[in-house]
Specification:
Layout: H1 15-45, H2 49-86, H3 89-118, H4 121-124, H5 132-143, H6 146-161, H7 166-186, E1 189-195, E2 198-205, H8 209-231, H9 247-250, H10 254-286, H11 290-326, H12 330-357, H13 359-364, H14 370-384, H15 387-402, H16 406-429, H17 436-460, H18 467-472
Antiparallel strand pairs: 1-2
Helix pairs in contact: 1-7, 1-11, 2-3, 2-5, 2-6, 2-10, 2-11, 3-5, 3-6, 5-8, 6-8, 7-8, 10-16, 11-12, 11-14, 11-15, 12-14, 12-15, 14-17, 15-16, 15-17, 16-17
Length: 473
């Protein structure tokens, strides 16, 4: 059967072409997810700033949990790409089986964690009394299917590590369409719609914020199941077989798990640093009022479209660097890394220009509130200047992770988020009196610092030599 993979080390294919062949499905997948996020936010935003704030309250915690899951998955996907690059297919199969063990354990752990935090977290973040119950319900509904979300993250990471970026794209396309349809019927009440001159009554549950959560949960279940099935499909590069005994999957392998921990721990710390910062930022911005907070959240949503090329290139970089270094070709790894940095910075810079020029239409997608739109337009124009530097840091993170050097990304994020952004945001928003604009100025400074540091660390080439230390430990 045909394999949905790219021959990453094929010397007859130029490095630029290889990057694009691997990156375009990831970029398209990110685009699909962003479009769904746009529709999701717009549907909720049509109910007013309070509904937007209710969903926004859950975002930072969701980012934290998803980031931790991605970090755990990274510990396995990097090992898989390394072994594929070096020809160790049987070892790669064993690593996938261990990833399945971690998937089930992690899914259960994060389900319990999210359920415990769902009640107090909105109040801790400063949610208004009439908003907090909706935020809690949203978190509880979404976290009830956390095992399937973990499957989506782990299995998607495994497929990409093996060079298959198309299958996750296809599955996410289906899941995202399901989410939109679910929103349509679950958020709004029954209503009349006029199509081609005829009026139809369309059923609706009228669940509001909770309806958006239910649609998101169902799409997560769908994608988690389909990606899990894809791992054991004959189309997958490793062609895994789980028929013999379940003990092959559920028997821990200390060496594989130890290496996964060594590789994934710095990435987890990076996500904790980033997401804990976002939680504190959310608390600080909430104190500025519902309208500024809604504008801040919606600007972040609108800006997410500029991430698409950067994150797609980063996914390609992780796989390319992992397999190149696994094959012992450091020169090729350096070439891929330099091109990924260049592509990500240029593409995200172009996206930032579009964001600046079309700030009003972008922010207007999400809300009819004139005050929120006016603030959001200015926010998007300020944020646009940071995009080329953000592109450098995003691509560099993918490079470092592919090399097993998640520590560099961690320290860069730590300095940017807590040493630059957090400090500046507090000073500019409150003592200096810039209000919500101070939050955006601080964000630009953070991205500038991270981009410059990422480029300098890449140029030192230390990231090429760290994998051996993981194995030795």
């Amino acid at each position: 059967m045909a394999k949905f993979t790219v021959d990453l080390l094929d010397q007859s294919c130029s490095p630029s072409k290889t990057i694009l062949l691997l990156a375009w499905p990831a970029i398209l997948e990110q685009l699909l997810q962003t479009m769904v996020s746009y529709v999701d936010t717009a549907m909720v935003g049509s109910m007013g700033a309070d509904a937007t704030a209710a969903v926004a309250m859950t975002t930072s915690l969701s980012w934290l949990v998803n980031g931790l899951m991605n970090a755990a998955a990274l510990g396995f996907s990097v090992q898989i790409s390394r072994n594929i690059g070096s020809g160790g297919i049987k070892q790669a199969e064993r690593i996938v089986r261990q990833a399945m063990l971690a998937l089930f354990a992690g899914g259960l752990f994060f389900t319990v964690l999210m359920e415990l935090l769902a009640g107090p977290m909105p109040l801790i973040l400063g949610a208004e009394p009439w908003i907090a119950p909706h935020s809690t319900n949203y978190l509880r509904i979404v976290s009830s299917v956390q095992l399937f979300n973990t499957s989506m993250v782990f299995c998607g990471g495994i497929l990409r590590g093996a060079g298959d970026t198309k299958t996750p794209m296809q599955v996410n396309l289906l899941a995202n369409l399901t989410n939109i349809i679910g929103n349509f019927f679950l958020i709004f009440p029954s209503r009349d719609m006029r199509i081609f001159g005829r009026t139809f009554q369309v059923w609706g549950a009228g669940w509001g914020v909770e309806g958006a959560a239910a649609a998101t949960a169902f799409s997560g279940v769908l994608s988690g199941i389909l990606l899990f099935m894809a791992i054991f499909s004959p189309r997958f590069t490793l062609e895994l077989q789980i028929k013999p005994t379940l003990s092959q999957i559920f028997k821990p392998d200390k060496t594989i798990l130890k290496t996964a921990l060594a590789v994934g721990s710095p990435a987890a710390l990076e996500r904790i640093v980033m997401s804990s910062g976002q939680l504190v930022l959310t608390r600080l911005v909430t104190g500025l009022g519902v309208v500024p907070f809604a504008a801040y959240f919606l600007c972040n949503q609108a800006e997410s479209i500029s991430y698409l090329p950067g994150f797609g290139i980063a996914i390609a970089a992780t796989t390319l660097i992992g397999q190149s270094l696994g094959a012992g070709n450091k020169e090729l790894a350096t070439k891929y890394g330099g091109l990924c940095l260049r592509f990500a910075s240029l593409l995200m810079g172009g996206a930032g220009l579009l964001m600046f020029l079309f700030s009003k239409p972008l922010i207007s997608i999400f809300t009819p509130d004139a005050e929120v739109i006016a603030l959001g337009m200015i926010g998007l124009k300020i944020m646009a200047f940071s995009e080329p530097f953000f592109g450098l840091s995003v691509a560099a993170s993918g490079i470092f992770r592919g090399a097993g050097d998640a520590r560099s990304a961690f320290f860069i994020t730590l300095l940017g988020m807590w040493g630059v952004r957090m400090l500046l945001l507090y000073i500019l928003c409150y003592p200096a009196g810039y209000g919500i604009f101070g939050a955006w100025y601080a964000m630009v400074a953070d991205m500038l610092a991270r981009g410059v540091l990422s480029y300098l660390v890449f140029r030192k080439n230390r990231w090429q030599h760290l994998w051996e230390s993981h194995i030795e430990r």
